[in-house]
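Sample entry (192 residues):
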Amino acid sequence: MGVSELNHARKLPRITNYGGKEEVALLLERIARGLQRIVFPVSNAVSVIGMSVLILMVLLTVAEVFDRRFFDTPISGVLSLSSLGLVVFVFLTLAYCATKGGHVELGILTSLFPKRVQAGIASIMYILTTGILGVAGWQLWVQAMKVQTAGQTAGPLEIVIYPFLYIAALGTFLISLVYFIFFLNSLNEVRK
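Predicted structure, serialized as tokens:
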């Protein structure tokens, strides 16, 4: 009994034009659009949280300077709060910055190549970036679990550190997903 007879006996549909250029391009585009519909709004939402933390850090710093200057009584733990707030701000706004094209890309050499070669180079760089950021996010998550188990704290206020490491890991995973979307889009450019 041949393969086609087995497929007919099991009533499985035959796949006739599997892997055609148009189908692959359409599939990549659908995956990229689907991910983009989820990841981009999430990156916008978490960036609002990050920017809100930045505003709170500015207000805290102004209050600390004012207190130190006029009452000679500095606010305890401002340096720790600012450092941890900076972690929240940076990692929660990275993906948003990437979605808006805000990260620096140098194309001095690649701009001399044809568009298809540029797209090929971009796709290689995007998948490498996705992988590196994915590994970094994973390691941040592992470190957060270790710090959580150890119960490490920061500064005179003894603020627990692990939530900030989890935030950094989530922000890193989010930007990794953004670069994966860029990778999928660049693959379609290579195929054109």
